[in-house]
Design a protein that fits this description.
mainly alpha; two-stranded antiparallel sheet; about 75% helix; globular
Length: about 290
């Protein structure tokens, strides 16, 4: 029996394809075009080939910014994922406390990025900020505008405050989806809390943890607004991440060719790391049923 093929559905998808082409593909092609050319304004372009890519990959400025980005992203993952799991495990599953906890967890996510930066910029100031005032009065020298360590600590704590709630909500969604029968069987077998977490809760949270890791890595690796508002990339270049350096190069120095090349390399790095995270975590999750069966 031959199957009837109906291509009319493509007409329903066509508006989406056109929108994606205008919002993503065409700007991407424009960036690719700029990355292989040089311009001095007046819409005059000169062919540069791969010159900008070669200069970029050999640039110490790019390497330093990339290292700072990687340190920041992995620090964020190392803090937010365990902390998010811990908070989700402590949240109630029933009763009036559930909506209260969910609302409290969602509040930081509702604050715009530039407002978050402004809040922590004022909060951490040594003269008028509560955090800076308290730390300096208890004997801890804290000034994020002059001390690179304080600047890094401020940016990391700020991101943890802003985005840990996302990990908490994802983990909590995975926990509440676990049937009560699993816990009843564990209690009958006399399983400890660690055994319940290791063999019941953690495997059930595997998919949401994969989403959390991917989202938090991509977002932390592309972070711009919060550290730019708080530190401006300083003191010196201690918190100048790739995104901040890219904006300085494109808008501050108007080096469109090098900036376009940097944006493409930036995009490829995010793509590769996200693919690695997804592949590794998916393979780890796929191996668990086989190990259990053996």
């Amino acid at each position: 029996m031959e199957k009837t093929v109906n291509n009319k559905a493509w007409f329903m998808v066509l508006p989406v394809l056109v929108l994606v082409a205008f919002s993503a593909v065409i700007p991407l092609m424009t960036v690719v075009n700029y990355s292989v050319q040089d311009t001095f304004g007046n819409n005059q372009f000169f062919w540069a080939g791969t010159e900008w890519f070669v200069d970029l990959l050999a640039s110490e400025r790019f390497t330093d910014a990339l290292v700072r980005n990687l340190i920041f992203s992995f620090s964020i993952l190392a803090i937010q994922i365990p902390l998010g799991i811990f908070i989700a495990l402590c949240m109630p599953r029933k009763g009036w406390g559930v909506p209260v906890c969910l609302v409290l967890m969602a509040l930081p996510l509702l604050v715009p990025w530039n407002v978050v930066g402004t809040i922590w910029q004022v909060f951490g100031r040594a003269d008028i900020g509560l955090l800076g005032y308290v730390l300096n009065n208890i004997g801890i020298e804290y000034n994020y505008t002059q001390d690179p360590v304080a600047a890094w600590a401020t940016v990391i704590i700020m991101d943890v405050w802003h985005w840990t709630s996302l990990v908490v909500l994802l983990c909590y969604a995975g926990l509440v989806s676990i049937p009560e029968a699993y816990y009843q069987a564990a209690r009958i077998d006399g399983a400890s809390k660690w055994a319940i977490f290791r063999f019941i809760q953690l495997p059930k949270m595997h998919r949401v943890l994969l989403i959390a890791v991917l989202l938090r890595f991509m977002d932390s690796f592309m972070i711009y607004t919060e550290p730019f508002v708080v530190t401006g990339g300083g003191p010196g270049n201690s918190t100048t991440f790739l995104s901040i350096d890219l904006v300085k190069m494109a808008l501050g120095q108007f080096d469109l060719g090098p900036a376009a090349a940097m944006s493409l390399v930036y995009f490829l790095i995010i793509l590769v790391f996200s693919w690695v995270f997804y592949t590794v975590m998916t393979n780890v999750g796929a191996e668990k049923p086989e190990t259990k069966g053996e």
